[in-house]
Amino acid sequence: MIVIDMFDETELVAPAHLKLVEEIVTFASTFLDLPEKSEMSITFVSDARIQEINREFRHKDQATDVISFALNDETNDDFPINLKSLSVDFPYNLGDIIISVDKTAEQAERYGHSFERELGFLALHGFLHLNGYDHMNAEDEKEMFGLQKEILDAYGLKRES
């Protein structure tokens, strides 16, 4: 089972919402058939904090809803040791997701659905990015958004919730 470390810098995310995020990401990890020893982190922040992160790492000086930092890219420039060649059974670290609690509430209201649905959507969206999915072109967007909808529907978190 996937290990998800969650950090709430805002102290505004209810335990039920943390549980929902954990359940959706765990469900999605099974749906994508990820290795059992997978791990990742999710941090909940304010708009001001995600804007700082966005500015520092993406050179975009604005708040956004979710940012993903995948650790499974193909480059080994920073860490040239091939971990797969070692006999130690390391967990498969997917990376980190940062979610703006402010944007979650704002977008839930704008799109006319619940905070829970928006939070689940953003957690899943970030999770799919950690697993190599993207929406930089129409074909990739269709694949990623289709998979997002399929997972949310299978989990039971519909847009009209």
UniProtKB/TrEMBL annotation:
<dbReference type="GO" id="GO:0005737">
    <property type="term" value="C:cytoplasm"/>
</dbReference>
<keyword id="KW-0479">Metal-binding</keyword>
<feature type="binding site">
    <location>
        <position position="125"/>
    </location>
    <ligand>
        <name>Zn(2+)</name>
    </ligand>
</feature>
<keyword id="KW-0378">Hydrolase</keyword>
<dbReference type="InterPro" id="IPR020549">
    <property type="entry name" value="YbeY_CS"/>
</dbReference>
<keyword id="KW-0963">Cytoplasm</keyword>
<dbReference type="Pfam" id="PF02130">
    <property type="entry name" value="YbeY"/>
</dbReference>
<dbReference type="GO" id="GO:0004521">
    <property type="term" value="F:RNA endonuclease activity"/>
</dbReference>
<comment type="similarity">
    <text>Belongs to the endoribonuclease YbeY family.</text>
</comment>
<feature type="binding site">
    <location>
        <position position="135"/>
    </location>
    <ligand>
        <name>Zn(2+)</name>
    </ligand>
</feature>
<keyword id="KW-0540">Nuclease</keyword>
<feature type="binding site">
    <location>
        <position position="129"/>
    </location>
    <ligand>
        <name>Zn(2+)</name>
    </ligand>
</feature>
<dbReference type="InterPro" id="IPR002036">
    <property type="entry name" value="YbeY"/>
</dbReference>
<keyword id="KW-0690">Ribosome biogenesis</keyword>
<dbReference type="GO" id="GO:0006364">
    <property type="term" value="P:rRNA processing"/>
</dbReference>
<comment type="function">
    <text>Single strand-specific metallo-endoribonuclease involved in late-stage 70S ribosome quality control and in maturation of the 3' terminus of the 16S rRNA.</text>
</comment>
<keyword id="KW-0862">Zinc</keyword>
<dbReference type="InterPro" id="IPR023091">
    <property type="entry name" value="MetalPrtase_cat_dom_sf_prd"/>
</dbReference>
<keyword id="KW-0698">rRNA processing</keyword>
<dbReference type="GO" id="GO:0004222">
    <property type="term" value="F:metalloendopeptidase activity"/>
</dbReference>
<dbReference type="GO" id="GO:0008270">
    <property type="term" value="F:zinc ion binding"/>
</dbReference>
<keyword id="KW-0255">Endonuclease</keyword>
<protein>
    <recommendedName>
        <fullName>Endoribonuclease YbeY</fullName>
        <ecNumber>3.1.-.-</ecNumber>
    </recommendedName>
</protein>
